[in-house]
Write a structure and sequence with these properties.
The chain is an alpha+beta fold. 35% of the residues lie in helices and 13% in strands. Strands 1-2-3 form a three-stranded antiparallel β-sheet, covered by helices on one side. Strands 4-5 form a two-stranded parallel sheet. Helix 2 crosses helix 3 and helix 3 crosses helix 4.
């Protein structure tokens, strides 16, 4: 397994990957001392993360994800969320209708998503415009949406 710490304006991201696909990307509270073993895939991811934070509109759609161990419905949900354009949002209910899930199941899937930023869970909000949860990081969700220019 390969791993890499990626610095960002909101804190370090810790990426893990196989030779073929990203296995996880997490926002860390404390990121020092974690092992790193870079790979070409992770160097490409780091370049894309830097591009995103420079305002390029990076969507991460070309980053292959390892959905091993996830239910097909959850993988389909994550792929649908990946297609939400930068600066736009979708509601839990909209995604539920598209993926055959309840809004609550969409929320649970987003909460358990192992691919921070690459699957842009910040773009999934309540139908009434409330942001909703973000695994205890609602301030980060709001920051990312403002950064992306979402209204």
């Amino acid at each position: 397994m390969y791993s890499l710490l990626i610095p960002t304006p909101i804190g370090p991201l810790y990426a893990r990957a196989s030779t073929r696909a990203l296995q996880s990307l997490e926002l860390l509270v404390l990121g020092e001392g974690l092992p790193e073993r870079p790979s070409p895939l992770l160097h490409d991811l780091a370049r894309r993360v830097q591009a995103y934070f420079s305002g390029s509109g990076e969507t991460f759609l070309q980053v292959p994800l390892d959905y091993g161990g996830l239910e097909p419905r959850r993988a389909a949900l994550y792929e649908e969320v990946r297609r939400i354009p930068v600066g736009q949002t979708r509601s839990y209910a909209q995604l539920g209708r598209l993926c055959g899930l309840s809004p609550r199941a969409v929320g649970a899937g987003m909460r358990a998503c192992p691919f921070f930023l690459v699957v842009p869970a910040q773009r999934v909000i309540h139908a009434d415009g409330r942001l909703g949860g973000f695994a205890g990081l609602e301030g980060v969700k709001e920051w990312l949406l403002r950064f992306e220019g979402a209204t």
